[in-house]
Amino acid sequence: MAAATQRTKRVIHGIRGTRDILPLEVDRWRRVERVARSVCDRYGYAEVRTPVIEREELFAKGTGESTDIVQKEMYVFTDKGGERVTLRPEATPSMVRAFVEHGLEQALPFAKIYSLGPMFRYERPQKGRYRQFHQLDVEVFGISDPAIDGEVIEMAAAFIAELGIQTAELVINSVGCTGCRPRFSQALLDALGKTVQDLCGDCQRRVKTNPLRIFDCKVQADQPIIEELPHSEDFLCDPCREHFAEVRRHLEAYGLQHRVSHRLVRGLDYYTRTTFEVLGGEVGAQNALLGGGRYDHLVKHLGGPDRPGIGFAAGLERLVLALPEETREGNVVDAFVVAMGEASWTAARLLARDLRRAGLIVLIDYEGRSSKSQMKRANRSRARWMLILGEDELAREQVTVKEMATSQQHAVGRDIVATELLKLRARQT
Ligand code: AMP
């Protein structure tokens, strides 16, 4: 019996690598989401919400068979209808699918879309790296001009700056196109020669599937070999070189400081030409706040028209971690209504309803508690005002408004109390 009781009392924990976002942290999340939407709106992006569940094939084809994401990290299963499905590990293939499937090119003035939502990767969890995490994803289709690369990168930097994150660094590179990249890949293989055998297992696999991704390797012992490898910039064809120079001219015109890193190839197969990341100094080992680049063949590869694309994804968990300490967002309780005496409860509830309708954040107690315990709760709620409604107030059609910070109180007519509080609140914030 004792064992059975114990078993029924066992607490069921959340899954490793997933997190509950609790009320005290939610303020910070709401700030990141509000700024994200506001920035996207101002740069002309339309919001799209795609399902978290998609066909496995979309990512095998879109993200790339050779990537760690597809090979090791996807949550894939066969559903009851026998279909191979997966929880999306990233947003870009879904965004491309939606763009193609619904002909968004015709529907929108510019094919600029964004999305916010959870992604799933079976990675080794640590601070800033989770199995369920959230991204802001931004994509533009149909524009090859480097002016859009410049604008997308400027928007990413503006987003980080508006969040108040001071220590971010912008890193860029060009990985070339289908014309010049194979020459670079071959140069990497030639330079590696026999030293391939000395690299880690992952790198030996990368050599066969996508040699550029050797630059993603974090294994310490591999670094001396990797440091000696050729740089992508030296193998760019003339149009790619000119495109990269033009992107940099745009960044300079915007006054955006940046570092060129030949190692920035990014872990996905679909990138062409521009790649970029924003690194945040204070997030720990997992310090990439956002990353993206150009993908000129993905739309066609996924069955759509031949349209170039560029975009980025920002990790919301990492942005929340990187926010300045003092960040607070709304959610301050305006008033706590206290009913003094049994006769006041109905009037108190109607007062709370009317104030809420007027736009104030209002709390009220239940279960007919004593006025003393209501006041205790009012203190705990950190409301700006306590609104007291007793027999006297009812008779005079008034409410006693007590400012919690100063303990000063005054009577206000019941019919004007909402307007009064709104005015006071506007003056205080
Ligand atoms: P990616 O889709 O891999 O290019 O990543 C884009 C951004 O998403 C990164 O810069 C991170 O901020 C974030 N991110 C990627 N993977 C994770 C993860 N497992 N946990 C938390 N954030 C992540």
What does this protein structure show overall?
It is a single chain. This protein has 429 residues and is α+β, with helices and mostly antiparallel strands. It folds into 2 domains: 23-180 and 236-322, Bira Bifunctional Protein, Domain 2 (BirA Bifunctional Protein, domain 2); 335-422, Anticodon-binding domain (Rossmann fold, 3-Layer(aba) Sandwich), CATH 3.40.50. The strands form 3 sheets. An 8-stranded mixed sheet has the order 1-5-6-11-10-9-7-8. A 5-stranded mixed sheet has the order 13-12-14-15-16, sandwiched between helices. The chain starts with a helix and ends with a helix. It has 17 helices and 16 strands. Helix 2 (23-42) packs antiparallel against helix 7 (146-162) and helix 7 packs parallel to helix 11. Adenosine monophosphate binds next to strand 6, strand 10, strand 11 and helix 13.
Report a brief summary of the structure.
Helices cover 39% and strands 21% of the residues. With 429 residues, it is of the alpha+beta class.
Topology overview:
Blueprint: H1 2-9, H2 23-42, E1 46-47, E2 53-55, H3 56-64, H4 68-73, E3 75-78, E4 84-87, H5 92-101, H6 104-107, E5 112-120, E6 132-141, H7 146-162, E7 168-174, H8 181-192, H9 201-209, H10 223-227, H11 238-253, E8 259-260, E9 272-280, E10 288-294, H12 298-301, E11 309-315, H13 316-322, E12 335-339, H14 345-357, E13 362-364, H15 371-381, E14 385-389, H16 391-396, E15 398-403, E16 409-413, H17 417-428
Parallel strand pairs: 1-5, 7-8, 12-13, 12-14
Antiparallel strand pairs: 2-4, 3-4, 5-6, 6-11, 7-9, 9-10, 10-11, 14-15, 15-16
Helix pairs in contact: 2-7, 2-13, 3-5, 7-11
The site of adenosine monophosphate (AMP) has 17 residues, from strand 6, strand 10, strand 11 and helix 13.
